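Quick one, tokens below. Sequence please?
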């Protein structure tokens, strides 16, 4: 029991460290990473009929989607911000559907879409090695 508590405390401290040292772009990368992990955990919980785990992970997925949607800057982001807002709302509806119907396919659809966005976001953040 203490071992699990120690591991959890270490993971939380590690996550806090990553968040504190991240710039806005890095924070979004962390959110995407956490979102994908939570979607994977949701998928596993649904597959294993772990209703408590499903509820816990879906709550985290919905919270992260809310944070991502709330962080959009429609003045600076224009059409991209609008598209992301629509994506996050679609994802939210699909996750709720997955929870309500105990279905895997909506979680799979959302994970694929978010993974594609996360990959694009990661590419945006990479520095051009020729600029150095």
């Amino acid at each position: 029991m203490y071992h699990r508590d120690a591991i959890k405390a270490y993971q939380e401290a590690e996550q806090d460290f990553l968040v504190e040292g991240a710039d806005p772009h890095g924070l979004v990368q962390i959110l995407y990473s956490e979102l994908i992990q939570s979607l994977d955990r949701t998928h596993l919980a649904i597959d294993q009929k772990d209703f408590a785990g499903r509820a816990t992970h879906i709550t985290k997925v919905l919270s992260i989607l809310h944070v991502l949607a709330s962080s959009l800057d429609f003045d600076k982001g224009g059409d991209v911000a609008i598209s992301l807002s629509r994506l996050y709302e679609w994802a939210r509806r699909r996750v709720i559907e997955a929870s309500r119907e105990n279905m895997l396919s909506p979680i799979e659809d959302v994970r694929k879409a978010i993974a594609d966005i996360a990959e694009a976001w990661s590419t945006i953040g990479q520095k051009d090695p020729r600029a150095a």
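The helical segments are 2-20, 24-47, 51-70, 74-101, 105-125. Residues 33 and 118 are 8 Å apart (CA to CA).
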